[in-house]
């Protein structure tokens, strides 16, 4: 059974810092890994999707890497802003499992002005 | 393109009462998912439909939870009777199909508080 863990559970940083969020998974037979953002009281917004054959994806100040063999992914946020404050979730899709996503518990990020 | 719609957005009930949530997926999406997200945790899949058939309901507490998608479009999730531990956000998602290449799109969620 796939298990996904995110560390840390919460993070508070001053504005302008670069930061790294971590995600680990137990079953390396994944199809892809996705990072989501969730604002309080809102649904999920997809940030980056990395296919199993890829090593990283970039979008603006965000960079996500994937090391499938070690079961790890990181989300790097450059020059953090107060508007980045949210919960960040990673989810993995196991191959041939009916499009099922398994989520980590999330990292709650607070960027202080 | 309209996204996944859910209603109500918020619901407060007392324990042992009943509650129902509604989801309208993106037009043309055959696969629909209901997730439960307890505060401080990631979403957990409760049930997955392919058209009007159930694909996976292994994590649905069937003694109190039920879900249907009678015409293969809209879906309703019901809790009867509710318990305190059912307080959570209930997320609905849809995808074109259930293949590995299909992307899930999420609705805004319904926040349930059980008192």
Distance between the termini of chain A: 41 Å
**Structural classification of chain B:** mainly beta
Low-pLDDT residue intervals, each spanning 5 or more residues of chain B: none
Q: What's the multimeric state?
A: heterodimer
Order of helices and strands of chain B: EEEEEEEEEEE
Mean pLDDT across every amino acid position of chain A: 94
Output the radius of gyration of chain B.
13 Å
What percentage of residues of chain A falls in helices of 4 or more residues? under 10%
Based on Cα principal axes, name the global outline of chain A. globular
Q: Could you estimate the helical fraction of the residues of chain B in percent?
A: under 10%
Which two chains touch over the largest interface?
A-B, 24 and 25 residues
Percent strand of chain A equals: over 45%
| Inertia-based shape of chain B | globular
How many helices of chain A? The count is 0
Please trace the helix and strand order of chain A, writing H or E for each element.
EEEEEEEEEEE
- Rg of chain A, rounded, reads 14 Å
Largest sheet of chain B: 7 strands, mixed
Uncertain regions spanning at least 5 consecutive residues of chain A: none
**Tally of DSSP β-strands of chain A:** 11
Task: Outline the secondary-structure elements.
The complex is a heterodimer of chains A (about 110) and B (about 120).
Chain A lengths: L3 E4 L2 E5 L4 E7 L4 E9 L5 E8 L4 E4 L2 E6 L4 E6 L8 E9 L6 E3 L3 E6 L1
Parallel strand pairs in A: 2-11
Antiparallel strand pairs in A: 1-3, 3-8, 4-5, 4-9, 6-7, 7-8, 9-10, 9-11
Chain B lengths: L4 E3 L2 E4 L5 E6 L6 E7 L6 E7 L2 E4 L8 E4 L6 E5 L8 E8 L9 E2 L3 E5 L1
Parallel strand pairs in B: 2-11
Antiparallel strand pairs in B: 1-3, 3-8, 4-5, 4-9, 5-6, 7-8, 9-10, 9-11
In short:
The complex is a heterodimer of chains A (113) and B (115). Chain A is mainly β.
